[in-house]
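Q: Fold this one first, please.
A: Sequence and structure below.
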Amino acid sequence: MEYEVTIGMPVYQVEKYIRESLESALSQTFSSIEYLICDDCGTDSSIAIVREYQANHSRGKNIRIVRQPHNMGLGCARNRLIAEAKGRYIYFMDSDDILALNTIECMYEQAKKHDADIVYGSMEKVLLYDQGRHVPNTKYSYKVFLHEDEFASWAYEKYDRIQASTCNFLIKVDIYKKNNIQYKPINYWEDFTTTMDLPTYVTRVVMLPNVTYYYMCREGTLSNYQEREHIQKEEILQTMRAVTMIKENSERVRNKPYFANRMLKVMMTCFYVCCTILRNRRNITPSFNNRELRDFMKYPVAWSYVCTLRHAPLFLLGKLPSYVSVWQMYIMGKAKHLV
């Protein structure tokens, strides 16, 4: 059976939350939806709950479960969902978050109206540890981009202009398949390496002000390592590896008008990660040395090109002696209240 849209949901150890998430997906006002569940081999009853809906819900026949060979993580689960999807478009959601009732309908209407490669929706955080308070997370104005490089130029113009999360956009499955776009098999920031570069692969894009996704924030489940008292260095190293992958993918867009802004966005990310490490240095085990932080601030581009940029001092941090570089990071981070 073919569908217009596949909702792709990786599932791992979410038995407490998956009912509410599934209900929000199955209650969508849009009719032609495949519900593709990737079983990432958890040990709780999450998949048993999915099978219960598969057997008893009125849309159960549209639920399909694919199982990984073993627990492989979010990146590999998303790649499997892309490979298996029967919809023309795919929409990722996490198995502990909630969709608005008409999320797919309003996104699909815009996709068809403008023959869009991708449609982004706005998102809210729901702070369940603070009486369910709603906090805007990613709020877009209505925009339509129809010309080559137009969206990428806009997206990279400011640091936080588009979301880092893979959830809450409707995208043509062929964008992934024709460009061989893969999520990285890492546990932290696996989506950032892909969402950071998606603007370089799409032309026709719609941004919606509609809140279509509710990111459920529960006490004790915050993903930011900077919120914890004890942090394993390996977690941060995985984040650093993800950003390094983006640096290494730079040459592909070297001649694009947005290249310098894309490069700056990557470097700002590096700087923020380094400031987080400096702010939490006592809590990280084992610790980072100055050379590791300095080397993370290097960028694989000629210094002669960097010198033409107005933000050249940021790139200089990767060229200085390590102790001087880290001292400069600390001073700059203090000025921006990051350290």
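Q: Good. Now the second chain.
A: Here it is, same layout.
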Amino acid sequence: MSYYDEQKTVREYISMAEGYDGKLLIAALSSHLDEGAQVLELGMGPGKDLDLLSERYRVTGSDRSQTFIDLYLEKNPKADVLRLDAVTLEMDRSFDCIYSNKVMQHLSDSELRKSIERQSQLLNEGGFVLHSFWKGSGVEENHRLKCFNRLERDIESVFAGSFKILELKTYKEFDPDDSIYVIAKRL
């Protein structure tokens, strides 16, 4: 069983993540994406960013963890949420934007490439992605979860060919310049 599938560890994660959200990322996105656009959030977790996104956009939340989905639906029974794997993204819907906050870092390089390729297929013409990552190199393991840290050049390489990078910036989550976000437009 995965860390995010167990009720106890999901509640630990929610407690640990208290006080953190994607306000900075969503503000950056809003300069590129029109209000009312259709947005898919990958890895919605407890739904903090999903709630923030829904203030401006029509949102669909998704997670691989049924536990996160169930907890969110208890409080928001009418929410549009899907159980999705961030690599395969098996669905037949399209979006104006795909968003994730520190989710794609759990994917290996080959999984990330496959996901980005699939995302380009799910986006409407001129669609955007915004993804954030921990900045660094190498792989770390925490709570039975692998985290693939990435540098700017790694992100540029993954997005080349399918997307035009509009913003690629470092920012502070816990420590100065510990994180990177990318906003890119589908070619």
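Q: Anything worth noting on the second one?
A: The first strand starts at residue 38 and ends at 41.
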